[in-house]
Amino acid sequence: MARRYAGHCRRQHLDARLFGSVAGIYPGRSLHADGGYRPLRCHRAAIWLECNDPRDTSLRVVCPQDGGGHQPPEGLLPEYRHHLDGCGRPQPQAQRVVYHHAGRTGSLAGATAGGQKCRRSLLGYLCRHGRPQRHGRLCSPETGQQGLYAHQPQRGPTVGGRVCQIAGIQLEPKRVMKIRHLIASLLLLMCAAPLRAQWVGDTVSVPAFLNKEKNLIDFNGADWSPLFAEMDSLQNGSDSTARVVSIVHIGDSHIQAGYLTEAVRLPLQRRFGDAGRGLVVPLKLAKTNEPHDYSVVADGAWNFARCVGRKYSAYTPGIGGIAIVPRTNRIDLTVSTLSKTDDCEGFRRVRLFHEPTDSFPAVISEPYRVTGEARSPFLTCYSWNDPVCSIHFSGQIAPGEERLAIYGASLETGESGILYHTIGNNGAFYSSYAAIPHFAEQVAALAPRLIVISLGTNESFSTSLTRDELYKQIDAVVAPLQASCPQALILLTTPAECARRRTRWVKKRRRVYYSPNSRVTLVRETLKAYAADHHLACWDWYEVSGGKGSSTAWRKAGLMAYDRTHCTETGYRIQGEMLYRTLMNAYQDYVDNGVAQ
Length: 597
Prior knowledge:
CATH architecture of the largest domain: 3-Layer(aba) Sandwich
Number of domains: 3
Shape: globular
CATH topology of the largest domain: Rossmann fold
CATH class of the largest domain: Alpha Beta
CATH superfamily of the largest domain: SGNH hydrolase
Strand order of the largest sheet: 15-33-30-29-16-28
Distance between the termini: 63 Å
Low-confidence stretches: 1-178, 192-201
Mean pLDDT: 72
Number of helices: 11
Strand content: 25-35%
Oligomer: single chain
Helix content: 10-25%
Structural class: alpha+beta
């Protein structure tokens, strides 16, 4: 069956999130919906979409009909579909052949745009107020004939991390479709594409509505001079001994994707030295999303557990908030760093976190001179001489061991620099990490000099959580970390404004709208009060991001997702850029004045 890239027809705009590069179309070539064809070249992929409403027009990119002896392109499968005209009327006599890629899920492997391969190409469809937009037609500006056209390819949105070409289309609105909706959608497309393409290296353009003058760390009497002194020695020292400044960033879904922390980690490592990728967690094996720059792949069947959700609590999670457990007594696990360029992020040392055991059974099967030692019941270290981008663990669990959970691994270069560890879990609360046994002890194994905690968004959606309860939950995480990591400084960050999804009935129709989540201010005030009471540093991201009403501005700028809670990739990178800037401003104050508090 052909894969449908659009599920139930819901309100979507032609923006950079849905309107990707149209692969396989050349300028001036077109396919007419009236049954006539012009020459059309397919690059081993066909893109189309359709709403589940059978009356809706299905827009497709197809290869020429194979009735004349044409063979389907390699890697594509034909599918016969009835053609629908511009008003959604079926025409059974006009069958066409639609080719779709037979590759892996979520990817159109081999599709090209602008000479570059793209991971995914989607064509947004028109819906209005939750209903299919059946009266908007695709038509030729020259002939007026209906169809899908590509004219003057231009620089467009990114697909799979690459900037691709998009094909311009001309829409002929009719009755229900208002021209202002079309113009707004196309303007959003043109504005959102540059935003998505601005991430080059480690910098992004910061929007004007942010309170840049408020981008300061409130130290609350905490002395950060020892941390900045170590960072200064990394930048200026000539000692051959490897020195590492370890930073641990703990958070929720804002952190799990990795965009925010990457925007902090990369410029820090460029300035002070690269000590490695840091902690990687097998999130995909736990059936959740994972950062784009590493992979953890396992052979065989594995069970998993997460720190969020009762149905995922069959096992005890570890430092990364998850645990993976082989269903057999065999361990086959490959850990790799990934890169969109030819240069991967090599590492010479791995610290593997696992369920407490006297001896971890897995060994590195690659032909390296590996030295392994157990540093603690839940930590085994491996090291070798030459940097690698991938390592494979294999082993047999002892007969007496019923199971052995794996939590994650720290990938390190063995050189001086910054080691930035990311611990993020979708839907996590402060209480989620407080419930992980020995969480603080495992974090202490990373020897952090700074622990950044970015939680609170999920707490703001709890209508029953009181200020006192939240205060206790914060302390249940921070106090054990301070006890286990006495050398570490703590930085609490406040969540940005988000919005609640609400519904109302208008003329017997249910309408969805969003209103600011007022409980974010309660979380913010509680975090600031806790930081002041315990002399911990606090970064007020709520104020820096714009404060009250900022979620609307972020959404209009294309920096916040449709749910008004999560950000787009660019939005997260902007937040990371602002965190990096405030850290460097504080560091520069230390360099200039010798004091940071």
